[in-house]
Amino acid sequence: QVQLVESGGGLVQAGGSLTLSCAASGSIFSINTMSWYRQAPGKQRDLVASITSGGSTFYADSVKGRFTISRDGAKNTVSLQMNSLKPEDTAAYYCFAVGRGTTGAFQSWGQGTQVTVSS
């Protein structure tokens, strides 16, 4: 079983910055892709950014140029540096990982961390 634990959320003024972190633990052989999703109240959960084991990244159009995703493969961690935050970035942010563990392939979600951007 693989567990993901996020940290770093909070309240920030528009234009400010926050860094989210996510650590994966458990019986992990390898992690292919680590991603950040977000979900605002009453809306669907959307992909924000992802990074593969090879370092390829993807960003949603709404965060390009403002957010940066990075990972430490040795520590099984992923971070999301968020700059120039806007009120519309307010949401619960979830870490998601896909990989292989001792019992086979896994897909795991973190519990979420709240980001609130005030105008």
Descriptive account of the structure:
The protein has 119 residues and is mainly beta. Helix content is 0%, strand content 64%. The protein contains no helices and eleven strands. The chain has strands spanning 2-7, 10-13, 18-26, 28-39, 46-52, 57-59, 67-72, 77-82, 91-101, 104-109, 113-118. The strands form two sheets. Strands 2, 4, 5, 6, 9, 10 and 11 form a seven-stranded mixed sheet that branches. A hairpin with a 2-residue loop joins strand 9 and strand 10 (104-109). The chain is elongated. It starts with a strand and ends with a strand. The model has no long low-confidence stretch (mean pLDDT 97).
Fill in the keyword field for this structure.
mainly beta; 64% strand; elongated; single chain; 119 residues; 4-stranded antiparallel sheet; 11 strands; 7-stranded mixed sheet
Fold blueprint:
Blueprint lengths: L1 E6 L2 E4 L4 E9 L1 E12 L6 E7 L4 E3 L7 E6 L4 E6 L8 E11 L2 E6 L3 E6 L1
Parallel strand pairs: 2-11
Antiparallel strand pairs: 1-3, 3-8, 4-5, 4-9, 5-6, 7-8, 9-10, 9-11
Describe the structure concisely.
This protein has no helices and eleven strands. 0% of the residues lie in helices and 64% in strands. The termini are far apart.
Count the strands?
Answer: 11
Inertia-based shape: elongated
Rounded Rg:
14 Å
What is the distance, rounded to the nearest whole angstrom, between the alpha carbons of the first and last residues?
Answer: 40 Å
Number of helices: 0
Task: Estimate the strand proportion.
Answer: over 45%
Mean residue pLDDT: 97
Q: What does the main sheet amount to?
A: 7 strands, mixed
- As a percent range, the share of helical residues equals under 10%
SSE arrangement, N to C:
EEEEEEEEEEE
**pLDDT below 50 for ≥5 consecutive residues: which ranges?**
none
What structural class do the secondary elements suggest?
A: mainly beta
